[in-house]
Amino acid sequence: MTSSSAAPATRDFDGRVALITGASRGIGKAIAAELLTRGAHVAITARKPAPLAEAAADLRALGHGGTVLELPGNAGDPDARAEAVRRAVDELGGLHVLVNNTGINPTFGSLMDADLDAVRKIFDVNVVAALGYVQQAHRAWMAEHGGTIVNVASVAGLRSTGVIGAYGASKAALIRLTEELAWELGPTVRVNAIAPGIVKTQFAAALVAAGEDAAAAGYPMKRLGTPEDVAQLVAFLASDAAQWITGETVRVDGGLLATGSM
């Protein structure tokens, strides 16, 4: 894989350390690649060790010089979160950027038929684990040194979908959590969120079952997003170019919500 910005104008993350969760594929992996191209050292986490090791090898092969530290562990496990943050700080020398990208959606359809255990798991991973990572990052580094946090939400957190209600509700909670954290952690820590539309990843495969062209027809840009589209926005929000932006949720949805429909 390659980043869409093969020759960035500046290495604006030189010397900085970023921890990206859910980074064995898709959006998380693209974010790690983008930050590497800009000079960062990256720590990547995911639940399954083998795909994470493969992603780490791909990232190292990009040849941008930054260290890639793979940290297998379940985002829903408090001990795994603490260990990931500890190792990032100890082995890479700090934690300037945290990207909460891990997300799950094991249930589709009516909320009236939803398995409540599945709903609890969605909120635990998509919201509680994100807060847990922020707490750990703040205690280990950001309280003293400052930093930036980007939470990966979804347009489903901004508008009802009718088919992924529990997931959407969890992302709405993550958006509100972003605002609360921005207020609480400022001025030294900035906290923002992004809200992607459908991005061409394995995670979104069920949403494009009828075909990519059909799924993209309702987008003003007439295409679905790519992981690189999202990664470049994350890098901007985590960079000094966005130093007066906090508490925001920025849509990266090809204009979908501008149409008034989902």
Automatic annotation (TrEMBL):
Coiled coil: none annotated. Residues 16-197 form the Ketoreductase domain. PROSITE patterns: ADH_SHORT. InterPro entries: KR_dom, NAD(P)-bd_dom_sf, Sc_DH/Rdtase_CS, SDR_fam. SMART domains: PKS_KR. Gene3D superfamilies: NAD(P)-binding Rossmann-like Domain (3.40.50.720). Belongs to the short-chain dehydrogenases/reductases (SDR) family. NCBIfam families: PRK07231.1 (NF005559). This is SDR family oxidoreductase. It comes from Rhodococcus zopfii.
